[in-house]
Amino acid sequence: MSSKPISDYGLLADCNSAALVDRAGSIDWLCMPRYDSDAIFARILDPDAGHWSIRPKGSFEVERRYLDGTLVIETTFTTADGVVRLTDAMAFPDGQRGHELGLDVPHELLRLVDGVSGSVELEMELAPRPEYGLVKPLFRRTDEGGRTFGGPNQTVVTAGVPVELEETTMRASLTVTEGDEIGFAVRWAPVESAEPAACAPDEVAARIGDIAEGWRSWESEHDIYEGPHREEIRLSSRVLKGLTYKGTGAIVAAPTTSLPEDAGGERNWDYRFSWIRDSSLTLEALYVGACPDEAENFISFMTSSAGGGAGDMSSLQIMYGIGGEHDLSERELPHLRGWRDSSPVRVGNGAWDQTQLDVDGELLNSMHLYRDRLGELHPEIQRFVAELADAAAAKWSEQDAGMWEMRGEPQHHLSSKVLCWVALDRAAKLAPRLDEYERADEWAAEADEIRDAILSRGWSDKRQAYAQAFDSDELDAAALLMPLVGFLPATDDRMRSTIEAISRDLTEDGMVLRYRNTEGLNADGLEGGGNVRDLYLLAGLLPREGGRGRARRGALPAPYRLRERPRAARRGGRHRERRAARKLPAGFQPHRADQLGGGYRRGARGGGRMTPRAGR
């Protein structure tokens, strides 16, 4: 059984794909050449599904960190006889910097072992298992290391020590003393590639150093935030960058599949796709913590994927493959046991053809947030904005699956209605940029109608709170979006009562449940509870009440007290040239948010017209 805690894993990424490495030096997840490709290593889902481990023999202690400003992981093993360091990175082309990160990557994973002190015996084990462990390839030893054949791809291995092959697994034993450096590399190649080559072992150290400088160059152009939790925000920004597919601008919700909501449960979904909602929230996070440049690529990707429209004849979906794929049909992999026996393991996602009315609002909210950065909109994007608003106006009164993608009966989800209001509100504000497609008065009038319906039918007298759906008494954490998107202020009496109800009835162990699974109302047809932990309460309880709220009085649980204020942002390479003060979007405003410097400068691309583009 795959039993390691998920929190033991660190993320490596090259803006095309990602790997997970645990505290003991084992890479247990790797998909190449894309995030959504079949896994080569998948031991996180099954002990026989492939891995690459480098670790000391015997007992050891571990310290681990990301090298500053990077997604390069350094793991330090301390044994009774010495100390050794393992550094892992996914490769960029040599010398790649800044916004070029991720272009034409070599699809290569690099590992460097170096001796710090004493003498340490290590063991290396490499077991590639393509197609999620289904294939045990032919593994042939070469002068440099080895090469696999079998399945839809091949891998090339270079090793700085002698290796042995035992059927489909490569092994090596090595003793590392102070000052030693030993490099390893695995490179993916398509099956038709005749002579693929991986990085030479004696070049691995220099290549990892160059990769680290590449990450730091990106961060130096985006490191504009100086406020609370600055280091955490910097790391989060790098992680979000690492989950952005450079080829199209798509942003994956996660680099993995089938890691469960509950151990042993069956809510195990494949998240290696680009949801409009998740990607929009990512853009909002990058706005606060990094830079808006990635917004241009994503909005172009989404416009192109939808065929340039959002009307009845368009192909707008709630999500797409990272190359713009539409059909993301779901299937199960019965040969995998799942993390902690959480089965089934799934690839693809059956939610791709669901109706979720909130996505128009999510996308328009991001476009409104980045309106200054996007500059003049191409007529195709002007039309796309208008059709998104028109779709929200036409469909807001319909039922849908909701933002939690419930697989039960559709409902009139409150959060979907709120985001339809957002779509029309933001479109009306964007109207001056839409030329012939502008219909601000119509959109504003429809937004008022939605607002009236939410205020009347969304309120539960029984719970004294806004409910999960119209004419319902069930609570849902999604109601906390209302102040975040500017629908109601957090100081509104009904909103404060809603926060109180959710804090009282949906909070367990300092975390917030999305909803309570009630048979016949919001059940999704799966075994176990639907009480999925969520953190919207953190945002819903931000101290926005001018010193009069519970947060200011200290009556909230400690995890919810966020009282620090940001300083004016004054950092960030090329962004120093333009420092226009800018407020954060509605719902993202800490105290005195007007003092948070925007600090964004339009790059060479930003000064012209915003245009849709096809994927690379």
Structural write-up:
With 616 residues, the protein is of the alpha+beta class. Helix content is 25%, strand content 20%. It has helices spanning 130-133, 204-220, 230-242, 276-289, 293-305, 359-369, 371-374, 379-395, 414-430, 440-457, 481-484, 493-505, 536-540, 550-553, and strands at 10-13, 18-21, 26-31, 39-41, 51-56, 61-66, 73-78, 82-90, 108-127, 138-141, 145-149, 153-159, 164-166, 169-177, 181-190, 274-275, 319-320, 331-332, 346-347, 376-377, 459-460, 465-466, 507-508, 511-513, 533-534, 609-610. A hairpin with a 3-residue loop joins strand 11 and strand 12 (153-159). Residues 527-616 have low confidence and may be disordered.
What is the number of E strands?
26
Kindly state the percentage of residues in helix. Answer: 25-40%
Global structural class: alpha+beta
Question: Which sheet architecture does the biggest sheet show?
Answer: 15 strands, antiparallel
Shape: elongated
Global Rg: 25 Å
Mean pLDDT across the residues is 82
User: How many DSSP H or I helices?
Assistant: 14
Low-pLDDT runs of 5+ residues are 527-616
Strand content: 15-25%
First-residue to last-residue Cα separation:
40 Å
